[in-house]
C-alpha cells in the first residue's frame, strides 16, 4: 500500500465516520439508508428545491429534537413546538381579511397537493392564520415537514398579509 492508497483509505474512513455521526444525529441506525433530514444536515441543500417523499415508507421515522432544532434555523418565522410529545412546525400570520385568509389557504393547498404532504390550516377570528406541519404517519417531524414549510415561505403572499405582517415578512429575505 503506497501513500496515495493510505490517503484514500484515511479519507474514506473519515467520510464513513462523518456519515455515521450524521445518521446518529438524525436518530437513524448507521446500518439503514439515510432518510428524513440526512441530506440537508450533511450537504446544506436548499430545502425549497427538494421534493417530499411518500410517507408510507417503513423506514420513515420521526427525527430527533436535536435534528429538528438544527433544521428550524433554515425556516424564517417558523417555530418548533412540542405538543403532547409530538414535535411540530408552527407559523402564525395575520391576513388583511377573511377572504385573504381563504386565498392564502388556496395557495398553500396547491403546494401541499404538489408535494403530497398536507399541513393543518387554521383561520381563527377573521384574520389570524396558523399553519401546523408534522408527519401524521410517524407522529412527529420528518424532512418532508421542513421541505413543505420552506416552499410555503417561498410563496408570494405579501398582498394577502396585514400591513405589519407584510413588513415583517419582507425583512426576512
From TrEMBL:
This is 4a-hydroxytetrahydrobiopterin dehydratase. GO terms for biological process: tetrahydrobiopterin biosynthetic process. GO terms for molecular function: 4-alpha-hydroxytetrahydrobiopterin dehydratase activity. Keywords: Lyase. It is an enzyme of class 4 (lyase). InterPro entries: PCD_sf, Pterin_deHydtase. It comes from Cucurbita moschata. The lineage of its organism: Eukaryota, Viridiplantae, Streptophyta, Embryophyta, Tracheophyta. Its EC number is 4.2.1.96. GO terms for cellular component: mitochondrion. Belongs to the pterin-4-alpha-carbinolamine dehydratase family. It catalyses: (4aS,6R)-4a-hydroxy-L-erythro-5,6,7,8-tetrahydrobiopterin = (6R)-L-erythro-6,7-dihydrobiopterin + H2O. The gene is LOC111432994.
